[in-house]
TrEMBL record:
Residues 107-470 form the PTS EIIC type-1 domain. It is a multi-pass membrane protein. Gene3D superfamilies: Glucose permease domain IIB (3.30.1360.60). Residues 5-87 form the PTS EIIB type-1 domain. Coiled coil: none annotated. Keywords: Cell membrane, Kinase, Membrane, Phosphotransferase system, Sugar transport, Transferase, Transmembrane, Transmembrane helix, Transport. This is PTS system trehalose-specific IIB component, Glc family /PTS system trehalose-specific IIC component, Glc family. It comes from Clostridium frigidicarnis. It comes from the Bacteria. The chain crosses the membrane at residues 105-129, 159-179, 188-207, 227-246, 258-282, 302-322, 342-363, 397-420, 441-462. GO terms for biological process: phosphoenolpyruvate-dependent sugar phosphotransferase system.
Amino acid sequence: MAKYIKEAKELLEFIGGKENVKAVSHCATRMRFVLKDDLLANKDNIEKIKIVKGTFTQAGQFQVIVGNNVSDFYNDFVQVTGVDGVSKDSAKDAAKSNMTFIQRVMANLAEIFAPLIPAIIVGGLILGFRNIIGDIKFFEDGTKSLIEVSQFWAGTHSFLWLIGEAIFHFLPVGITWAVTRKMGTTQILGIVLGITLVSPQLLNAYSVAGGDVAPVWDFGFAKINMIGYQAQVIPAILAGFVLVYLERLARKISPPSISMIMVPFFALIPTVILAHVVLGPVGWVIGSWISKVVYMGLTSTFGWLFAGVFGFAYAPLVITGLHHMTNAIDLQLMAEFGGTSLWPMIALSNIAQGSAVLAMVYLNRKNEEEKQVSIPACISAYLGVTEPALFGINLKYGFPFISGMIGSSIAAIISVASNVMANSIGIGGIPGILSIKPSSMLMFTVAMVVAIVVPFVLTVILGKKKLGNI
């Protein structure tokens, strides 16, 4: 039986009626609307609906935070309003008509990396765990690590590298697959292309960086270096998109009767050649430039300023969706320098925004309805997902958002000044410490304490002034 008939009708009215809805879908906690005119949506009235916990606009979609019962609400909304629901992917495609060119580029990059993030996170946790048992000298007066005193843990340490290598060394396979998946072309061709970038036949990218001379394919009139692109992001992205457009072109000109042969042949083989002759070397250079510029910014005399600006600006980047670009930069830093000092600042920013929400929980401790939103949002931010905190609480009041940015900035300065380095991307909140290199864990803990205390204290002080009844 429909539970949310009244609320569904109210929401339809306040978003401008059925004629203002181009598409509607839902995710884990939110209704996602693509509206013809966002200005017709009455946010104040929508947020007064009892089931609604907040609203925001992102990536061309007007999003209404409902909570874990969003699927039930969505079903009732579609039933009682007569609005046809679409898949989340279809809604995203429709939303792109409301985006600028830059926003569309960012959205496409985000959709490429989104299916890879679970693997990258678990890979980061595995590498962090391996470092804890393999590098920290816990035993025999601080002279031996766990793997040096236990054969079981030595075997575990070795076995877990199987997964870590699969995730990070063979990352180009995942990227080329994700590109073909996103663009709607043949995914197995994307996988094959990725494998040709990391084949054991090729000289490992890490060996190339170490100065080893690569063997060559000798065609008589030309020679091609047999270089692998393990862990390289940009060469894989470039190759993936070339494959997509060559496949589309081949499909247009190929007679249907022989398309099964012609399309893969004329898409894959030229792409693999281009990948090793042009795209790979060019992408490698571009990736190296980007990573070196970021690394220089973080390690220069003004590294503290770079860190402070990044720590302050990261939460606003989340709102725009531009934060997804940092995934590619982090992965490139890992490939070039064996770790990343950018990702710890991201984790600290998430913690800081969660701490601002925690302060709002304290300030509104007598408001049961408010706590239903703020407590889950705080937990979510501490576990690395800040959208509920940002859109449900911090942006709503303003001052918690600024307090979180200030705390994040200070914590980022401490992190970079102390040369904190992560093995890889991990869970972007408090559990993120598991991805930090053992030598950096102590100072990252100090930075975490700052990211918790400073936003909490600032939010409480400002809250008592702005919310005078507390």
